[in-house]
Amino acid sequence: MNPKYLVILALIIIMVVGFAYVQSPSEDNSEEYHTYSQARMLMDTDVTITVVDNNETHAYNSIEDAFMNMEKASNLLDSYNNSSEIHILNEHKETENASDDLIHVIERGIYYSQISDGAFDITVKPVLDLWASKFGPDQPNVPPTEKEINNTLSLVNSSNITIEDNTIIIEKNMGITLEGIAKGYVVDRAIMSLQENGIENGFVNAGGDGRYMGEKSDGQEWSIGLQDPDKKAEPITIINARNIAVATSGNYERYYNKSASASHIADPRTGYPVSHLISATIIAPTAMEADALATTVFVMEEEKGLEMIEKLEGVECLLINSEKEITRSSGFAKYEQLKD
What we know:
Blueprint: E1 16-17, E2 34-42, E3 45-53, H1 56-77, H2 85-92, E4 94-95, H3 100-115, H4 125-134, H5 146-153, E5 162-164, E6 167-169, H6 182-196, E7 202-206, E8 209-213, E9 222-226, E10 237-241, E11 244-250, E12 277-284, H7 287-299, H8 302-310, E13 316-321, E14 326-328
Antiparallel strand pairs: 1-9, 2-3, 3-7, 4-6, 5-6, 7-8, 8-11, 9-10, 11-12, 12-13, 13-14
Helix pairs in contact: 1-6, 6-7, 7-8
């Protein structure tokens, strides 16, 4: 047997309460189900895939297939990868024979822009690039001027993306970033791979954004602790997760640089970083939907974001504003663990 099947991987995830137990080789075809887990770096974040299975070999083969599907999808959608489809589209403003993955993600990106009145827009890349160019080594470390922002905003409009058959075209000087939606889609691709291999219980977690199938080996739901923005030991709340996805957007971890304190999430409508929320957590049927809506609601004003979520079937949210006040959508509480 390959030595890697003899390794016990102990993994503590801040977002997931649980443990991984690796069965012994003699139990490889047992009727008893156990939990198997592996973690890798992908998309510049820690990715964990955990499955419940009664066959060790099948479990790890399924995990390996899921990682391969994740890597394939992420390589297509990573704008920093010079060979990716999205990079080629940004460079040449046109790509022929685009993959179904890229077309699907871009079409969904356009949809989220439509339902949010532009609060989510995958063509915001020129704005993000403008802000990034102002901070860092050998940069002025001052915000862009109003004129610079207004000039760049003229390039932001996802309705100017043309998709005909398998050809995608964008206008001159436009650029697309899929950072607000691609990670969720890649997680969904991994879940799809696990399901194709017959896995019914497990989860894929990518840097805190995850999708959860079925239940743990003990029959209990998966548990997800939502991080306190003040990084206290106790989570704000714990979500019981069964057949849902959870994603969070926040401005308390990533900045262009510490002195600028400018959020990495800019409003595509104004060109300026947003600051009225500290974090937005979304529960949705798929990880792509949760990922995109977390970014969308984070950009929107609190009341408008909440109003939009209430109209979407199977979607709930928990928002923390700049005053550290917590607001829940009407159905969020049904996913929370009851406190003793």
